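Hey,

Quick one before I head out. I ran the complex with 4AD overnight. Inputs first:
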Amino acid sequence: MEVIEVKELYKNSDKYFDKEISISGWVKNLRSSNAFGFIEVNDGSFFKTVQVVFDDKLDNFDKVSKLTLSSSIVVTGTFIKTENAKQPFEIHATNVEIINLSDSDYPIQNKRHTFEYLRTVAHLRPRTNTFSAVFRIRSVAAFAIHEYFQSHGYVYVNTPIITCADCEGSAEMFKLTTLNLEEDLPKTEDGKTDFSNDLFGKEAYITGSGQLHVETFAPAFRKVYTFGPTLRSEDSNTKTHANEFWMIEPEISFCDLDELMDIEEDCLKYIVSKVLERCPEEIDFCDQFIEKGLKEKLTKLTTSTFVRIDHHDAIDILKKADRKWEFEPDYGEDLAKEHEKYITEYYNGPVFVKNWPKDIKSYYMKLNPDGKTVAAVDLEVPGAGEIMGGSQREENLEVLKELMKAKGIQEDPLYWYLDLRRYGSNVHSGFGLGFERLLMYITGMENIRDVIPFPRTPNNCDF
Ligand code: 4AD
Ligand code: MG
């Protein structure tokens, strides 16, 4: 008999009532007595389970009553509408075929496990309710992101994973080499490692941002974006940093900082509204068990107007706050986590912080007329902190060269990036959206390790 997915049973129940159907899936829960029992089956197609009722008319009743958690089964039976029950329907089994009886030591039993413990069984945790919700939302959000950019005429660009270009600081990029680390490394005359006989004939890295490469496509396609993995070697053991994360990097020609913020706001609202629309069961679950008030927060976001303040004004607010800081806020400094938290709570929603001191930001950002700040903008949200970082780009060749010089960035390897300022330069802007930070915001999960299938963080590369 044709197997029907549980999602289809929920969406089109009426079609199947009183009919004989088959489902296949895994045992999520089982209760049984001498003569009958109930199995909750999840088949992966839908967040919710379907209840299977069985009794001792089954040939294998004894075996079915002793099914262990996560055993795989195929159930055939009549699909029955249930009035006044917790679940809207159930299957009265005529046959339960046991495909694989799970070992009884299945590491995720039906009790509350901590997220820390579940990270140690990352190969099994997608089967839990929480991670089922998180990872389906991850998939739906990824699709919504492509949908947003594609429907607005952006071209998707695959930027390289292996690179020699320094975008966000070479100190934070993983080095890539085929040199034999067991042997003494070849040295140049000045005592540095000699990469001339390495595979690429020079020192290479794994990308820490696709921005510079995607910028080259902007003058060809006007609006472009990347969506791919990013690696950074920073030794930051926090709830919001991973060494491998995914980033969306749009780049828009003829677009200034104000227009960029409009796009960022529109994009975030689109993604959130699509997740609300397409994952109602998952969002309800997260609202109930992960972050109370999540659904209201997300719904409110879709119709709110994000606050836009200068970095200078953000520091003013922090300085006026009647509280002690671990890190004293300062006009020339970055915002610490506690500052981000205060500002987003102060405004009770997402806040754009713009026009940052140039010394603490990247070389490619547009120098403002004051000569002290750059046209950069970070979007801060409660919980996840900075989810987007972007800027108008310095489009003037001479100014860009000055900025590079001041930050010790070599021109030669980036001649091609400078060429963009020679051939058809224009006011253009772009941003990077941290996909995991976005997911933390949407699901309410507090640790980045719990929104990425196999997290890579300092001292952790399990699986
Ligand atoms: O602010 P970042 O470093 O900006 C860039 O990489 C620019 N090249 C983007 C651009 O303008 N095209 O990173 C962008 C975003 C951050 O706002 C944050 O959400 C996320 O990437 N991010 C991280 N997410 C997880 N773990 C880390 N270690 C992250 N570092 C940055
Ligand atoms: Mg940033």
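The two ends are 38 Å apart (CA to CA).

Talk tomorrow,
K.
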